[in-house]
Amino acid sequence: MKHDDEQDRLPSARPQSLMFSFLGIYVLGRDTAVYSGSVIDVFARLGVSEEAVRSTLTRMVKRNLLARHRHGKKVYFGLTPHATSVLDDGRRQVWERGAVNRDWDGTWTLVGFSLPGSERSTRHDLRSQLVWAGFGLLQGGLWIAPGTKDVEATLAPLGLGDNVTVLQARALKPTESADLVRKAFDADQIAERYRAFLDRWDTAHPLPSAADDLARQLFLHTDWLQLVRQDPRLPAEHLPADWPGIRAETVFHTLAHRYQPSAATLAASVLDELALSP
């Protein structure tokens, strides 16, 4: 268990990660844009400077995640279709998929690739995308993930074509699925990340130094989304009965519902929104 001062320490999430949480909760699905000044006011509650907020908004515009909308002398920021797709995926990971894979059907998605030495940067990007999509390295050039994965959508931006082979398979004797989990994934590291989440949030009064429940809500969602995005959702049958992800998921849902009413009231009092035409 952490000491009280460590439990109270605000998370060190990147402004962009917090921005994704904010947009996912308060902009996604609303057909509105938000005034930059009111976004700055929200992020001041998180200890994020005005300069960092403006830099993050500008960067997200350049990445086609946000679009500027001018109304009088004010600049509002709304979601692009690309951002909507990214945020929808995050929403599904948080609210629909769950942290524990209890319905695995015994299949694996396999990805093999062979790239020349000159493609070192592409190889790095490919590996990063595979890890992000829940794959683990089984052996040289062969990556696996439990269940069916939409590899085409994940790897399409890299344009690798024939350099990548994608298959779906089942383990056959003498290979055991439990051995594949052990070889390709670091379950201890995944469990440790869940325990760190529990150290921060599974307390009577999480983050007492946070400004209010709006700040706690955004920190909580950011912590949780980063956690589940790093979790390959290994089959429950190959995890310990006391897997910390089970408890962590319960804690997240409990706190998310606890913070929502007061956070929404605070956000409504701060945010300046512009309705966008359909």
From TrEMBL:
<dbReference type="InterPro" id="IPR036390">
    <property type="entry name" value="WH_DNA-bd_sf"/>
</dbReference>
<dbReference type="InterPro" id="IPR048846">
    <property type="entry name" value="PaaX-like_central"/>
</dbReference>
<protein>
    <submittedName>
        <fullName>PaaX family transcriptional regulator</fullName>
    </submittedName>
</protein>
<dbReference type="Pfam" id="PF07848">
    <property type="entry name" value="PaaX"/>
</dbReference>
<dbReference type="InterPro" id="IPR036388">
    <property type="entry name" value="WH-like_DNA-bd_sf"/>
</dbReference>
<dbReference type="InterPro" id="IPR012906">
    <property type="entry name" value="PaaX-like_N"/>
</dbReference>
<dbReference type="InterPro" id="IPR011965">
    <property type="entry name" value="PaaX_trns_reg"/>
</dbReference>
<feature type="domain" description="Transcriptional repressor PaaX-like N-terminal">
    <location>
        <begin position="14"/>
        <end position="81"/>
    </location>
</feature>
<dbReference type="Pfam" id="PF20803">
    <property type="entry name" value="PaaX_M"/>
</dbReference>
<feature type="domain" description="Transcriptional repressor PaaX-like central Cas2-like">
    <location>
        <begin position="102"/>
        <end position="181"/>
    </location>
</feature>
<dbReference type="Pfam" id="PF08223">
    <property type="entry name" value="PaaX_C"/>
</dbReference>
<feature type="domain" description="Transcriptional repressor PaaX-like C-terminal">
    <location>
        <begin position="185"/>
        <end position="265"/>
    </location>
</feature>
<dbReference type="InterPro" id="IPR013225">
    <property type="entry name" value="PaaX_C"/>
</dbReference>
